[in-house]
Amino acid sequence: MSKIYDVLILGAGPGGLAAGLYAGRARLSTLIVEKGQDGGQIAITDSIENYPGQIVEGESGPSLIKRMTEQAERFGCERAHDTIKAVELDGDVKRLIGTKETYEGKTLIIATGANPRPIGCKGEKEFLGKGVSYCATCDANFFEDLPVFVVGGGDSAVEEAMYLTKFASSVTLIHRRHELRAAKSIQERAFQNEKLHIMWDTVVEELSGDDILQKIKVKNVVTGEEQVLEASEEDGMFGIFGFIGRIPTTEIFQETNLEMDDRGYIPTDEDMHTNIPGVFTVGDVRVKSLRQVVTAAADGAIAATQAEKYINEHK
């Protein structure tokens, strides 16, 4: 591809689409490259309740992303469906080397996202969105007055478990060890929460049910004892949340000079600048405290505005 775009955007989640919208409105030539479906994690979210300005009567991840995609394209964003195998970030022209073509731009906005680390049990994929979740902030409301289980033992798992006690009838933390990895201050608050219970030395082996999650098979790693937890007839189902970490999508940047932390996330300043001039990062792949659609969209708006500024300064 001979064209050098003003802005290349890698990833079409909320952050990438918001960046495309703002770049397009600024009359910057913009290309969004995505290997799969638009939306990232939100594309598999059945219901959204906390995005400002959404359809109050009912909004799904796909419906929200569809409008974001149309809005970005309305302002002239071009699209490419390709899998990027390598990148060149140094120099005045950034390159994305895909299986179909090589894409060039004066700036690059990285919006590759991060995926929840799976629990690793049988039936997990089948019950995603039908009882399995990885985001308490997103989905807690759907389990109001129902029993909920949380897998993990670190800061995020314990904090999210406490958050879920505001909605669920009870919350049981399933942890494979006999002590939590969360900070002591967090543990102290957890132990004082009457709605929070802990299953020590336990792993989840299988999830099952009749279209919705109704049974969880667990195993004690010390005794080897197995048991099946079943939802009551009154409840009909329960929820299970996995909080054993997230995996940032940054493999293709490993051989570059792009700075990443020890987990693979990309640090930026408040204006989304990375350590490489002309390269910006937005959304879940960035080091940040809250990973939500609204924060990803804000990141994208900032990054596109900063990309325009960078281009104007380097004419």
Task: Detail the topology: elements first, then pairings.
Blueprint: E1 4-10, H1 14-25, E2 30-34, H2 61-74, E3 78-81, E4 84-88, E5 94-98, E6 102-110, E7 114-116, E8 132-133, H3 136-139, E9 147-151, H4 155-164, E10 170-174, H5 184-191, E11 196-199, E12 202-208, E13 215-220, E14 226-230, E15 239-242, E16 246-248, E17 279-281, H6 293-313
Parallel strand pairs: 1-2, 1-6, 2-3, 6-17, 8-15, 9-10, 9-15, 10-11
Antiparallel strand pairs: 4-5, 5-6, 7-16, 12-13, 13-14
Pfam families: Pyr_redox_2
Catalytic activity: [thioredoxin]-dithiol + NADP(+) = [thioredoxin]-disulfide + NADPH + H(+)
Keywords: Disulfide bond, FAD, Flavoprotein, NADP, Oxidoreductase, Redox-active center
CATH names the topology of the largest domain as FAD/NAD(P)-binding domain
* Helix fraction by DSSP (H/I, runs of at least 4): 10-25%
- Strand % is 25-35%
CATH class assignment of the largest domain: Alpha Beta
Report how far apart the termini are: 22 Å
SSE succession: EHEHEEEEEEHEHEHEEEEEEEH
Q: What is the 3D form?
A: elongated
What can be said about the biggest beta sheet? 7 strands, mixed
* Mean pLDDT across all amino acids: 94
How does CATH name the architecture of the largest domain? Answer: 3-Layer(bba) Sandwich
GO biological process, one term: removal of superoxide radicals
Catalytic activity: [thioredoxin]-dithiol + NADP(+) = [thioredoxin]-disulfide + NADPH + H(+)
Subunit structure: Homodimer.
Keywords: Disulfide bond, FAD, Flavoprotein, NADP, Oxidoreductase, Redox-active center
